[in-house]
Amino acid sequence: MTSMNNNINLVKKALVQNNEIFHAEEQERQRIASELHDNIGQRLSALKYGVESLIKQLALDAQAKDVCQEFVHQIRGCIDEVRRISTRLSPVELSDAGLIMGIRRFCADYEKIYNCRVFADLEADEDTVPERRKNTVFRVLQECMNNIAKHAKAGYVRVELRGGDRLTLRIVDDGVGFDVSRRVSGYGLFSMRRRVHMSGGLFHLQSQPLLGTSVCASWSQEAG
Questions:
Q1: What are the strands of the beta sheet with 202-207, ordered from one edge?
Q2: 8 A C-beta contact, residue 122 and residue 103
Q3: How far apart (Å, rounded) are the C-alpha atoms in residues 151 and 172?
Q4: What is the share, in percent, of the chain residues with pLDDT greater than 70?
Q5: pLDDT the model gives residue 184
Q6: Average pLDDT, rounded, for the chain
Q7: Distance, CA of 193 to CA of 205 (rounded, Å)
Q8: What is the pLDDT of residue 108?
Q9: What's the CATH superfamily of 98-223?
Q10: Can you give the three-state secondary structure of the chain, one letter per residue?
């Protein structure tokens, strides 16, 4: 009995340590995202404005103007990429709108970008979800939807979020699916599974060739 209690205590201690590591990682992501947006992003914007001003002020021939316009195009591409990286590191949807509205906006944007129908069935009470958990849920959603865009060739995706004793995120697509016994690696799946487990949750994946894929992540509401 004593040995069993010791094992339980070790498991609890490991979960606490995992949560602390996970939280530290999220804080570092937020710091880097802020640095990208507030420092590098703003400097690139200033550089773009400066080049555009030079084009207007200087008497440049057609070839020189074309070269400068290409510089502006490249700088604009860098700005967009910095914004994308910053958003992936620290989702602005959560800070701006909260979890539920953030998921709805993400799904609406996903439909437009990937021409894929997305139905969001969200019934969780956001007030009962800890801030740390909101970030985890949203990141798992991002990673899963990114995988769908890359590999699934799906025409329809259903996103469910349920509350209660366990907070459950389920994402189901009608894509090509795959044989789970043969394909369990890949950074996307590894990242999702690791993120869920390190935050004290359970991760489950179901898929069959030509029958789509279902990803389910759940967390005890008491373990927030």
A1: 117-122, 156-162, 166-173, 213-220, 202-207
A2: yes
A3: 14
A4: 77
A5: 57
A6: 82
A7: 9
A8: 93
A9: Histidine kinase-like ATPase, C-terminal domain (3.30.565.10)
A10: CHHHHHHHHHHHHHHHHHHHHHHHHHHHHHHHHHHHHHHHHHHHHHHHHHHHHHHHHCCCCHHHHHHHHHHHHHHHHHHHHHHHHHHHHCCHHHHHHCHHHHHHHHHHHHHHHHCCEEEEEECCCHHHCCHHHHHHHHHHHHHHHHHHHHHHCCCEEEEEEECCCEEEEEEEECCCCCCCCCCCCCHHHHHHHHHHHHCCCEEEEEECCCCCEEEEEEEEHHHC
Q: Note the pLDDT of residue 204.
A: 96
What is the rounded distance in angstroms from the CA atom of residue 183 to the CA atom of residue 97? Answer: 36
Count of CB atoms within 10 A of residue 212's CB? 21
Q: How many residues in total does the chain contain?
A: 224
In percent, the amount of the chain with pLDDT more than 90 equals 32
Helix-helix angle 187-198:131-147, to 10 degrees:
160
Q: How far is the C-alpha of 128 from the C-alpha of 130, rounded, in Å? A: 7
- Partners of 173 in beta bridges: 157, 213
Q: Of 88, 81, 197, 204, give the one whose Cα is nearest residue 146.
A: 88
How do residues 68-83 score in pLDDT, each as one tens digit?
888 888 888 888 887 7
Q: Who's near 138: CB < 8 A, 6+ residues apart?
A: 91, 93, 94, 99, 102, 103, 106
Query: Per residue in 90-130, pLDDT tens?
Result: 666 676 778 999 999 999 989 988 899 999 999 998 888 88
Residue 170 burial (C-beta neighbours within 10 Å; 0-12, 13-18, 19+): middle
